[in-house]
Amino acid sequence: MTAGAPDGVCAVILAAGEGTRLRPLTGQVPKALCPVGNVPLLDRALQRLAGLGLAGPGRVAVNACYLGDQVAAHVGARATVSVESTLLGTAGALGLLRDWIAGRGVLVGNADAYLADRLAPGPDIAALLDGWDGRTVRLLGQPAPDPREPGTFSGHRFTGFSLLPWQRVRQLPAEPADLVRTVWRPAEAAGECEVVPYPGTFFDTGTPADYLSANLHAAGGTNLIAEDAVVTGRAQRSVIGAGAIVRGTVIDSVVWPGARVEAAERLSGTIRAGETLTVVAAHRRDFAGA
């Protein structure tokens, strides 16, 4: 059984970004609300936190900026929503929420992080909390192919979640800045940064290729079709959203809620949104065996 988060810890999900690498998919939908396995990314993050006992506006906050009204409406009363008038970055977002955090440690997650524990699906980010001393910065990470590459910590790539002590959050201003420079690297230099290995599958979903790969992983090598979708054509290893209509052929593809694939169409390695918006996700990663 997974232990819950201690009372002195809150959580912030970062959902303010424009998702420029996913355009045109994010032209009218914020990246945090893009579906993976027919579940919006933001909901996946909130569900993961709920598995740790972190739920409700007193313990969970979501920041928003780009298409922030959509994010706020989607979150509703499930969390505190901090809407930024301009993008503040990962550190500035916490600075704006400083009075809400109010002395607590904070578990920070990227809304676009897709995590799937290959052994025991569930709140695997609990490893960040296990035995935490309340002073060390903890990052969830996976070994990097080249431990010397830029952006690594102790030879690991960051996989979407970190745990920060109040003493490193309380001085963050509500102005544009990122956690790498203001918190993570200073903690690393002081010997107060620890990487917690994550053994599962991770995609940051920031590009069409990784976004598609995350969806195919969620489908588990078969079709994942919403109950009210209409499929009269052929679907193979694809994710088909609520209210979608597929009369043609879709292979290794994602069809968004309400989207259409006509009888004459054959999509492969593709994301379809609406009636005609089509994004080909070249060079997607193989998820087999992940």
Question: Any idea what the radius of gyration is?
Answer: 19 Å
Q: Describe the strand arrangement of the main beta sheet, using strand numbers.
A: 5-4-1-6-9-8-10
Strand content: 25-35%
| CATH homologous superfamily identity of the largest domain | Spore Coat Polysaccharide Biosynthesis Protein SpsA, Chain A
Helix proportion range: 10-25%
Q: What is the H/E order?
A: EEEHEHEHHEEHEEHHEEHEEEEEEEEEEE
The largest sheet is: 7 strands, mixed
Description:
With 290 residues, this protein is an alpha/beta fold. The protein folds into two domains: 9-203, Spore Coat Polysaccharide Biosynthesis Protein SpsA, Chain A; 208-280, no CATH class. It is built from eight helices and 22 strands. Strands 5-4-1-6-9-8-10 form a seven-stranded mixed sheet, sandwiched between helices. A five-stranded mixed sheet has the order 12-15-18-21-22. Mean pLDDT is 91; it is low at 118-123.
Which key features would you list for this structure?
290 residues, alpha/beta, Spore Coat Polysaccharide Biosynthesis Protein SpsA, Chain A, 2 domains, seven-stranded mixed beta sheet, five-stranded mixed beta sheet, 8 helices, 21% helix, globular
Q: What is shown here, in short?
A:
With about 290 residues, the chain is of the alpha/beta class. The chain has helices spanning about 40-50, 70-75, 90-95, 100, 125-130, 165-170, 180-190, 210-220, and strands at about 10-15, 35, 40, 60-65, 80-85, 105-110, 115, 135-145, 155-165, 195, 200-205, 225, 230, 235, 240, 245, 250, 255, 260, 265-270, 270-275, 275-280.
Please give the structural blueprint.
Blueprint: E1 9-14, E2 35-36, E3 39-40, H1 41-50, E4 60-64, H2 68-75, E5 80-83, H3 89-96, H4 98-101, E6 105-110, E7 114-116, H5 126-129, E8 137-143, E9 156-164, H6 166-169, H7 179-189, E10 193-197, E11 201-203, H8 208-219, E12 224-225, E13 230-231, E14 234-236, E15 239-240, E16 245-246, E17 249-251, E18 254-255, E19 260-261, E20 266-268, E21 270-273, E22 277-280
Parallel strand pairs: 1-4, 1-6, 4-5, 8-10, 12-15, 13-16, 14-17, 15-18, 16-19, 17-20, 18-21
Antiparallel strand pairs: 2-3, 6-9, 7-11, 8-9, 21-22
Helix pairs in contact: 3-7
